[in-house]
Amino acid sequence: MSAIIIDGKKIALEVRKSWKERVDRLKQRGILPGLAVIIVGNNPASQVYVRNKIKACHEVGIHSELIDLPEDVSETQLLMTIENLNQTPIINGILVQLPLPKHIDVNKVLETISVEKDVDGFHLYNLGALMSGNTIFPPCTPFGVQCLLEYSNIPIEGQNAVIVGRSNIVGKPMAMMLLQKNATVSICTSKTRDLKQFTSLADILVVATGKPNLITSDMVKPGAAVIDVGINRLEDGRLVGDVDFEGVKKVAGYITPVPGGVGPMTITMLVANTVIAAEQANQA
Ligand code: GUN
Question: How many A from CA of 156 to the centre of ligand 1?
């Protein structure tokens, strides 16, 4: 058996079409959704991500502004920039690309973004509201994973979902979102003793640890849906996930490739959250 490859690039383009229609409807009412993206310093990976986010906005007709701040910008200056954007009506969404330089308190930065403009879903309010199932903006990567599962008609309710990774950006919110959909959820970390004991029970396995080849074929239940959120650059320059793709695809029922799996969906959900922010700011 060979797994169905979940083509994130293709699904992302399809899903973006429906969000473009919502942008067009806003434009017919004279409303142009706007996203501000703040980048601090010259992290090459962040620059690529930011460029792709701006490009995706452009493609669906969202106005975007890139605010490029130097590595040594003060925390006060960054917070003031965010506060100004909070007060700018044409900006519906604010995203601060992470990671930030060490002299800046990332929590302070994320809490300064107005909840109504927190399209990354990283504000404490949005993270906390996931617990009650009432978040305004789900964080984009787990939201993208959920969308991939739904688009591929993979059932969630009643299924065993195992998440490997407990980050605030992916693992923890992913767990809450799948729990909300009535999956039976386990959260593991790369340090979990006998990880295989857990992963081999998973009908849905979501992996986000940043450790190449952490998940091998012997750890996967035949027919499982394996979602690889990892992006790792190997010494030979290759980009790989956390899952041994070639081995696991022989066992799994569904698998996402890296690149071209979860990544394009993360950006699509940012577009989605920005459109939702604009709709909510302009409720008739
Ligand atoms: N750095 C890595 N992933 C993300 C993301 O989804 N949003 C932001 N703001 N920074 C990131």
Answer: 25
Segment 173-216, tens digit of pLDDT: 999 999 999 999 999 997 899 999 999 999 999 999 999 999 99
The string of pLDDT tens digits covering residues 207-247 is: 999 999 999 999 999 999 999 999 999 999 999 999 999 99
What is the CA(28)–ligand 1 centre distance, in A? 31
Nearest CA to ligand 1 atom 2: 98
Is 120 considered catalytic here?
A: yes
Q: Is 280 a catalytic residue?
A: no
Instruction: From the options 3.40.50.720, 3.40.640.10, 3.40.50.20, 1.10.10.10, give the CATH code of 140-263.
Output: 3.40.50.720
Residues 94-111 have pLDDT tens digits of 999 999 999 999 999 999
Q: Which CATH number, 3.40.50.10860, 1.10.340.30, 3.90.1640.10, 3.30.190.20, labels domain 31-114?
A: 3.40.50.10860
Strands 254-255 and 160-164: unpaired
Q: What is the DSSP string of 6-66?
A: --HHHHHHHHHHHHHHHHHHHHHTT---EEEEEEES--HHHHHHHHHHHHHHHHHT-EEEE
Choose the residue to mutate in 38, 69, 98 for probing ligand 1, maximizing ligand atoms within 8 Å of C-beta. Answer: 98
